[in-house]
Amino acid sequence: MKNTLLTRRLTTSFLTTLFATNLISQPLQAEEQDAIIVTANRTAETVDETLAAVTVINRKNIEQSQAQNVTELLRLQSGIDISNNGGPGANTSLFMRGTNSNQTLVLIDGVRASSATTGAFAWQHLNTSDIERIEIVRGPRAAQYGSDAIGGVIQIFTRHNKAVNVRVMGGSYKTGQIEAGIGGGDKIKYSLNATGQSSEGFSRTRDTSSSYDPDKDGYRNQSLSGNILFPVSDKTSLRFSGWYSKSNVEYDAYGGVYGVSDNRNGTLDVRLKNQTTSNWSQTLSAGLATDDSKTTSSSISRIKTNRLMADWQHDLLLNPNNLLSLGLSTYTDKADNVSVSGNSTRFDESITNNAVFAILQSSVSGNDISLSARLDDHERYGSNGTGQLAWGRDATSKLRLLASYGSAFRAPTINELYYPNYGNSDLNPEKSTTAELGLRYQLTPQQQLRINAYRTRITDMIPSVNVALYTYEATNIGKANIDGLELEHDLNLQAWALLTRFTLQKAIDDSDKSDLLRRPRRKLSMQLRHQLTKNGSLGAEWLYASERKDYGNVSLDAYSLVNLSGRYQVLKSTWLEARVENLFDADYQLVNGYNTAGLSVYVGINYAPGK
């Protein structure tokens, strides 16, 4: 487990040169995907070398799993919990290390993708067919990225097809999906992927809910993702990456009224990368994220948000043991909320945030050190500084020790600042500090153990406070104490792999010492994978989550799920695929009053010549 900054910087320099000369396009392919991560410190490093708690899910993992949506992949990971308001397309929340769903930064190809009004990302509309790779960084990353990264960062890299790809799938709840993609190129590399899916679904609500309606609530979605990489010169490349999703969701509104939501979500990233000298590279990027939602039930309303952003980053290899990254960042959020039925505008506002950041990665006498600092200047609340210090050292050839301390914040959203009879223009950002200790131990060449223990303290949280009859206001009064322990064990024996993830956490509301909602104190997942002698694989997943609290002082029961998956090459370029979810038909709830899918079976055919 030899791990020096010199090795890391040589690797980074090599990858940067390859990128600039167009031999590869980020993210990396095949086996390299398991080794390289760029999200933790905004520069390339191996997973073992990074001083953060990270996980990488690559395209091979996605195809082995045959997961129907991205949250099925994420819920198996350490420190991540999922809630869903009943079935495909329903509102979905992700809690990382016990923090709120709007306290995890979500990037798509480097673009901040969460809504400017709710602060949360629409996970329910992101299809796994559009994903090449997922990088998960647990723990604060505000010193690198600014607002929202209290619990961590999840970055999605869109699909990179190398040739033609066609897939057709069908299964339970009259679910159907078809996807097609193409990609390739020599000097100019390109990829395009399109997907259409629909499901008749099931009733989202139970008869205990005030919104109960026994009808089936369907979901339809069309998505498109693509990227193209141009070689401007031997040392300069220009890349365009984009993702777009259009969906229609049926739901049960209050009083059992039929509701429907039409949504459009998308991102666009333009990135110019230049290897200025052998020791200096720079990246100039511009991004756009859009979120447009129209809901119809007893009334009609529409919410539109747009985020324009730009970053300019310089990476300077000062010497073999010191890498300095300097950058400027800016983004402007714009949102409007219109009552179509009432022919009125609830708000039409925008907010701008500018920032400067610096990241120094050094190796001193066998100690690897990362020091990060960032200053954000927000249009509404002013300046906010964050910092992070991380340390790592190889205690032995098999044991690596880690420690870090960092601060983070979340800026108030446009809803929290301006929504009528709720918004509060005097809000301050939520703030946090996190201390973490970790170790990585190579038990044998075939198995590794990783342990991370952390303590997070969050102040100035922004809950809704009842200030008058039926009137609530966003107010800085909340505090949370979150303590957690993550254990990860990987065992690889030739064609077999067993991945075990165990999380212990106490996420406590400091005001009344109660558990934060929908966060289990214990979670265990196990993934068993078997690579067949021919091109194919078999897999099994087991997930256990302990009881959780929900609104109304309700306790949600613990649950256990078993999923199976398989993929087998029946012809030279054709694979037969299958997935069984909730094998034992467990009856459980992620949100009180909302249903979840029972035993489900999905079968598909994938035609991919050249794979």
Describe, in plain words, how this protein is organized in 3D.
- It is a single chain.
- The chain is mostly beta strands and 611 residues long.
- It has a single domain (5-607), classed as TonB-dependent receptor, beta-barrel domain (Maltoporin, Chain A, Beta Barrel), CATH 2.40.170.20.
- The protein contains five helices and 36 strands.
- The strands form six sheets. It has a 22-stranded antiparallel barrel.
- The longest helix has 16 residues, at 5-20.
- The relative contact order is 0.13.
SSE layout:
Blueprint: H1 5-20, E1 36-37, E2 45-46, E3 53-58, H2 59-65, H3 70-74, E4 80-84, E5 92-96, E6 104-108, E7 111-112, E8 131-138, H4 142-145, E9 152-158, E10 165-171, E11 175-184, E12 189-202, E13 217-233, E14 236-252, E15 258-277, E16 280-296, E17 300-319, E18 322-339, E19 344-364, E20 367-378, E21 382-394, E22 399-410, H5 414-418, E23 430-444, E24 447-461, E25 464-468, E26 471-474, E27 478-493, E28 496-509, E29 514-515, E30 522-531, E31 536-545, E32 548-550, E33 554-556, E34 559-571, E35 574-581, E36 600-607
Parallel strand pairs: 6-9
Antiparallel strand pairs: 1-2, 3-8, 4-5, 6-7, 8-9, 10-11, 10-36, 11-12, 12-13, 13-14, 14-15, 15-16, 16-17, 17-18, 18-19, 19-20, 20-21, 21-22, 22-23, 23-24, 24-27, 25-26, 27-28, 28-29, 28-30, 30-31, 31-34, 32-33, 34-35, 35-36
